[in-house]
């Protein structure tokens, strides 16, 4: 099993600095944004950034990397928003390929399910990726629900990807906020899709109550899911998956979350 944190790309070293931080924290995987998650602006990666990142990645044993798409992306949208979303996601997929990332994670968006699938496949095509060949895999992430957000129900998430080359990412906080116990969400995903299509697990505690539809992550053991997350981490069916913590970040919070996670892995 590989595990890591969502790391910042801010600072002089940018993306390369995130890989360096992963090494300092002793992580075996990492997740990053490839650009600002709250802007449509697309910035090319500098060759020095790519070289620095790939060198650190190699030194860390080929550190599996996940790229999270921009929060602005809504693949189910029509018109200009839909077009911007496709191009933004295609940019992340290209950057993922250049950086040797394993996965790109994106929220399906709000609107028509068929449009979300079509736009996801368009983004793959624009990025020049052949879905059945080696390269970064695109994953739809389950959501906390509310409004017209797609992917809150596990069956719906499965239906979004079942006849496509896409995979899924399971977020424990989102599942809980949508009304699931995380392991029950996993069971339903296995029933409707199969766990071979699950690439990444976001291991997050939840500030909100079960079924609250509140997408607000808490530190491990400090939210409403609590010790139940240990069962997810140690679930035998997930042994080969990548676990990413998207928990609040500070030196103290990182130390707490990694101490809890590593304690669970040691059987404490």
From TrEMBL:
InterPro entries: AP_endonuc_2 (IPR001719), AP_endonuc_F2_Zn_BS (IPR018246), Xyl_isomerase-like_sf (IPR036237), Xyl_isomerase-like_TIM-brl (IPR013022)
Keywords: DNA damage, DNA repair, Endonuclease, Hydrolase, Metal-binding, Nuclease, Zinc
CDD domains from the UniProt entry: AP2Ec
SMART domains reported in the protein's UniProt record: AP2Ec (SM00518)
Cofactor: Zn(2+)
GO MF term list: deoxyribonuclease IV (phage-T4-induced) activity; DNA binding; DNA-(apurinic or apyrimidinic site) endonuclease activity; phosphoric diester hydrolase activity; zinc ion binding
Residue intervals of the Xylose isomerase-like TIM barrel domain: 25-262
EC number of this enzyme: 3.1.21.2
Source superkingdom: Bacteria
GO BP annotations, alphabetical order: base-excision repair
Statement: the UniProt record of this protein carries the keyword Metal-binding: yes
NCBIfam families according to UniProt: nfo (TIGR00587)
Family: Belongs to the AP endonuclease 2 family.
Protein name: Endonuclease 4
Species of provenance: Meiothermus luteus
């Amino acid at each position: 099993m590989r595990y890591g944190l969502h790391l910042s790309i801010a600072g002089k070293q940018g993306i390369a600095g995130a890989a360096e931080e992963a090494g300092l924290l002793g992580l075996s995987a990492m997740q990053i944004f490839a650009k600002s998650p709250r802007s449509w602006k697309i910035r090319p990666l500098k060759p020095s950034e790519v070289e620095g990142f790939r060198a650190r990645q190699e030194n860390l044993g080929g550190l599996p990397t996940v790229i999270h798409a921009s929060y602005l992306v809504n693949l189910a949208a029509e018109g200009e928003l839909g077009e911007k979303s496709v191009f933004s996601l295609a940019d992340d997929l290209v950057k993922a390929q250049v950086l040797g990332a394993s996965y790109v994670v994106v929220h399906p968006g709000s609107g028509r399910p068929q449009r979300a699938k079509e736009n996801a496949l368009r983004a793959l095509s624009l990025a020049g990726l052949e879905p059945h060949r080696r390269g970064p895999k695109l994953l739809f992430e389950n959501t906390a629900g509310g409004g017209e957000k797609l992917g809150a129900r596990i069956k719906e998430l499965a239906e979004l990807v079942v006849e496509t080359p896409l995979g899924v990412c399971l977020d424990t906080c989102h599942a809980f906020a949508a009304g699931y116990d995380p392991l029950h969400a996993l069971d339903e995903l296995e029933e409707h899709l199969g766990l071979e299509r699950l690439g990444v697990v976001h291991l997050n505690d939840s500030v909100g109550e079960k079924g609250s539809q509140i997408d607000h992550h808490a530190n491990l053991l400090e939210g409403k899911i609590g010790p139940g997350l240990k069962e997810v981490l140690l679930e035998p069916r997930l042994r080969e998956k990548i676990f990413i913590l998207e928990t609040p970040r500070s030196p103290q919070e990182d130390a707490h979350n990694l101490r809890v996670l590593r304690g669970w892995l040691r059987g404490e």
